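Hello,

Our lab assistant flagged a job as stuck in the queue for most of the afternoon. It eventually completed. Since we weren't sure the result was trustworthy after the delay, we are filing this so someone can double-check. Below is the sequence as submitted and the structure that was eventually returned. Let us know if re-running is recommended.
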Amino acid sequence: MNGKPSPGSYAIRCEKVCKRLGKNQVLDGIDLAVASGEVVSILGPSGSGKSTLLRCLNWLSPPSSGRVWIGDDLLGIKLDTHGNPHALSNSAIRLQRSRIGMVFQSFNLWPHMTALENVMEGLLSVRRLPPADARAKADQALRAVGLADKLDGYPANLSGGQQQRVAIARTIAMAPEIILFDEPTSALDPELVGEVLAVIRDLAERPTTMIVVTHEIGFADDVCDRVVFMDQGIIVEQGPPSQILHAPTEERTRRFLGRFTDRRGAGTNSVAARGY
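-- returned structure --
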């Protein structure tokens, strides 16, 4: 992206976000800003804080310190006339969080509901749409992810890739401003990864503001505007895929990417596309 966006043009941003779990410092002063329409991938080894960061960004797990904004709105807290922070009510936080969609590693579908009913549920209970309108939006979302023939299918009768596509349809039906993906293909068999990545790729072309935690290096290289590499609770480096994936400056990044290189003799900065 050319130039630095003004604060008002950021879809979501955080400043000095820290998160402690017991004695463990999971996040240590994260600064991150994502512009409207930008697609950002977050890479890093297991335990680096990637998933925790996403949960802080949508207030599923509020930061121990630091601040998060959706657009110009401070998330989870309000400031009094002296600039002191105070927690918002649960209902106010739920309203803010409805602006952020999240797709998890596990599909979290209601087993007793059809695909259509799973997607309708949030439209009915959160958006308070009339049933006919909720059905129409859910139908449209499922067709958008290639599941027009599975509207009446129950999760137990769907493949893992189809279940994850239902979860994505459930998210996009709510029309969030930002979508967070927490390793959306990690629970899938290898042959099902491509169908889910294809849906996310289609969303990126619309464009949709997205943050994707993933180990699918080829996807990050091909689709994302920016790659963020995390390790031990900090952002080690970030930049366009051409820089981070092919010419990283930090040894920790090079060492991580070395796990994904072509074993037939490619150099340490060569990235093998996987999963689609």
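-- support follow-up --
The delay was a queue issue, not a problem with the job. The result is valid. The chain is about 30% helix and 25% strand. Residues 190-204 form the longest helix (15 residues).
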